[in-house]
Amino acid sequence: MPQTPEAAQKAPALDIPLIIGTRWKLEDQSPKAFTQIIVYRGLHCPMCKKYLSQVRELYDDFLAKGVETIHVSMDTEDRAREAHENWGLDPIPMGYGLTEAQAADWGLYVSRAIKDAEADVFAEPAVFWVRPDGKLYLASVSNSPFARPDLAELLDKVDFIQEEDYPARGTKAA
């Protein structure tokens, strides 16, 4: 079973190529509020297309609240580029080539293909928020394409979290 990183602790490293020919490193990010990392299953996933389209609809609102977003998958560059272009996700950064080791570091569930259209191996969906100091604030990890957090609800809570200095939850040691 995957081990999700601990809330309020330093988030795992993430260094991933972008479809624009550069690299994206979590340690280099400096958002006002959070870095939002959205892991999607890949080009084959119609639920991902729908979810990432919602992210695109709310992208400017997230930015206005200090939340910078990246999409990440285990897809190849070509498949990630196709998803980005065909799903209308510009200007959100699109990472690709997430490794199984990176997926394990982030506590992601990993699946094998059950249909020809699917990649042989892919990570199941997740949403992470990382504070500017690099500490994990929110982790929503799913083993199913059908269970994902409501983006509008998350967006609505950014101001509350900032104004109330609301702490990361789930930090009680076993």
From TrEMBL:
Molecular function terms from GO: antioxidant activity; oxidoreductase activity
Domain Thioredoxin: residue ranges: 5-163
A Pfam family this chain is assigned to: AhpC-TSA
Entry protein name: AhpC/TSA family protein
Organism, as annotated: Palleronia salina
